Amino acid sequence: MLLNWGMAEQDRIVSATRRISAPAARIFELIADPARQPEWDGNDNLAQAAQGQRVRAVGDVFTTTLTQGADRENHVVEFDEGRLIAWRPAPPGGAQPGHLWRWQLDAADDGTTVVTHTYDWTELTDPERLPRARATTADKLAASVDRLAALAEQA
């Protein structure tokens, strides 16, 4: 059951875009390797993820530990190597509450990459997650993109 949170659908999709001075392949490795995600998480929500969980396809599941100590299983629902990755988090063994994190990378001819980070909670079904979803603003997504850029550009 989808819940109408009194907001238009477009208000439940936030994103941030930035051009990063690094090749798409280098940036994608930082995203597709969950062990690297806490380094660039602008929400300061991720504490750690085990090594060896590199995402390779739709259907992969990787586990992260949040700063609060809870684990999340992240179900990969979109994947195009070097270009696109999206996942839906869920409690271990639990149902996906309906929010999605997406990264899209568009390589430019000059060796830079346009990176778009999106948080989509149009299908969110858990009312207890509503405050956190509303608090996930474009500024917070931009913080993740900025941290990602700093890592990718120094490599």
TrEMBL record:
InterPro entries: Polyketide_cyclase/dehydratase, START-like_dom_sf. It comes from Mycolicibacterium aichiense. This is Polyketide cyclase. Pfam families: Polyketide_cyc2.
